[in-house]
């Protein structure tokens, strides 16, 4: 499942024992160091390229979120070796290794599978090469021309003294290189974290944009409906403005025949008498008229009301019979 390590709590001897116990098929003993919250692991990855067995040193920077996130891999060059250019998986400036296996890292991935993927990738395309120095070619002279003898010049014997670099200088160089490498690892981790946050924000913005597009379509549909309603209202207003309203209200309703005209007048009489009764009741309540006057007036208008309603029933009945016939 991976190497579950708490960087700040466990010592390196225990981590080394766990690594050997869980991954007994590793190519060599791991070299573990710690820098801040990262655990670095140096391994020699063996591979076979064009029938030649060789190996290359690789450093793994195990982040605190391991095994959820994959380690970062870097190629460490030995003396006299250079990175093969172009290489499909290795960045030429810092030696960063970007395998498809690391991009597809999942819950079942572990270091043994990573070592196998590195060995397989290096067997297809060698990550390093050693330049071969060849002597300069000698100029060829025509056979017909005689070659003069080379004069011998005495050379004074000089003793070459090899400068010995003290061990402390190598230690300082290694410490400086290690500090720079750790700084690069920290910068890379920060870039990966920032890139993850930016991608999450990008997904959120895309979702918001999709919702806004849906809302925009709905608003466009509502605007089209409102424009259609406004257009209909303007047409109705235009038609209403063209209608000529007569000054006399009686001209608005034109009866079709004499019987309809009589029925219309009787209905108007009925409603008029009803209004008179209402106002007489109000006058009696307010003591404007006496009870005797109210009774006298109500009897007079009630006769006209009953007469009008009788005629209305008669006309309606006659009209109904004529329609049925």
General description of the model:
- It is a single chain.
- The protein is an alpha+beta fold.
- It is 51% helix and 12% strand.
- It is built from 6 helices and 7 strands, in the order αββββββααβααα.
- The protein has helices spanning 12-22, 100-103, 111-124, 167-242, 258-285, 291-324, and strands spanning 31-35, 38-49, 52-62, 72-76, 82-83, 96-97, 128-129.
- The strands form 2 sheets. A 5-stranded antiparallel sheet has the order 1-2-3-4-6.
- Strand 1 (31-35) and strand 2 form a beta hairpin.
- The longest helix is centred in the middle third of the chain and has 76 residues, at 167-242.
Break the fold down into its secondary structure elements and pairings.
Blueprint: H1 12-22, E1 31-35, E2 38-49, E3 52-62, E4 72-76, E5 82-83, E6 96-97, H2 100-103, H3 111-124, E7 128-129, H4 167-242, H5 258-285, H6 291-324
Antiparallel strand pairs: 1-2, 2-3, 3-4, 4-6, 5-7
Helix pairs in contact: 5-6
């Amino acid at each position: 499942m991976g190497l579950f390590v708490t960087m700040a709590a466990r010592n390196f001897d225990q981590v080394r024992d766990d690594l050997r116990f869980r991954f007994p098929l590793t190519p060599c003993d791991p070299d573990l160091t710690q820098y801040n919250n990262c655990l670095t692991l140096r391994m020699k990855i063996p591979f076979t390229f064009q029938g030649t067995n060789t190996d290359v040193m690789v450093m793994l920077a195990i982040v605190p979120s391991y095994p959820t996130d994959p380690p970062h891999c870097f190629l460490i060059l030995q003396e006299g070796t250079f990175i093969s250019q172009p290489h499909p998986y290795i960045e030429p400036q810092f030696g960063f290794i970007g395998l498809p296996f690391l991009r597809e890292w999942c819950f079942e991935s572990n270091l043994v599978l990573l070592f196998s993927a590195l060995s397989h990738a290096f067997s297809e395309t060698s990550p390093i090469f050693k330049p071969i120095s060849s002597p300069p070619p000698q100029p060829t002279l025509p056979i017909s021309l005689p070659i003069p003898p080379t004069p011998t010049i005495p050379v004074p014997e000089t003793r070459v003294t090899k400068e010995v670099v003290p061990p402390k200088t190598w230690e300082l160089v290694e410490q400086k290189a290690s500090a720079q490498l750790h700084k690069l690892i920290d910068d890379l981790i920060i870039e990966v974290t920032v890139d993850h946050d930016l991608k999450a924000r990008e997904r959120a913005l895309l979702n918001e944009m999709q919702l806004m597009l849906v809302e925009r379509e709905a608003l466009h549909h509502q605007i089209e409906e409102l424009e259609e309603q406004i257009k209909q209202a303007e047409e109705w207003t235009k038609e209403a403005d063209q209608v000529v309203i007569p000054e006399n209200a009686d001209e608005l309703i034109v009866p079709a025949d004499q019987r309809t005209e009589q029925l219309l007048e009787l209905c108007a009489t009925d409603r008029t008498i009803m209004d008179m009764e209402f106002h007489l009741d109000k006058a009696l309540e307010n003591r404007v008229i006496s009870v005797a006057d109210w009774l006298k007036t109500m009897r007079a208008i009630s006769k006209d009301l009953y007469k009008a309603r009788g005629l209305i029933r008669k006309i309606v009945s006659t009209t109904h019979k004529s329609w049925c016939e």
